[in-house]
Amino acid sequence: MKSKIIFVVCLLFGLLFINSGLNKFFNYMPMPEDLPEDMLKLMEAFTVIGWLMPLVAVVEIIGGALFILPKTRALGAIVIFPIMVGIVLTHIFNAPSGLIMALVLLLINLWVIFENRKKYLVLLG
């Protein structure tokens, strides 16, 4: 039962990031009308740097796909982690309304990293 719950949580987490990455390329989800002014300025700055959003999108798609598969989940968690930190910081400083969801996703990511800590030890030794 525990493995099924873990799989579902990781599947949803991975699909969320794959969807987010694909949306950066195809813009199929509309932007909310009530974004804070700081968030609009931040998004404008990101789009001025032409290579940044495609890079984030590719990392989200690859990381999300890796996160879904149990064999590559440890790598996916590490790939997604910097993006996740950016999401949390963005919600802390620019859009606090989404902070709870961002923290839940960060906790899922940290949990997967913790569960796979033995796989990372070879990188440190």
TrEMBL record:
Any idea what this protein is called? DoxX family protein
Ranges annotated as spanning the membrane: 45-67, 74-92, 98-114
Compartment(s): Membrane
Q: Name one Pfam family in it.
A: DoxX
| Keywords attached to this entry | Membrane, Transmembrane, Transmembrane helix
Q: How does it sit in the membrane?
A: Multi-pass membrane protein
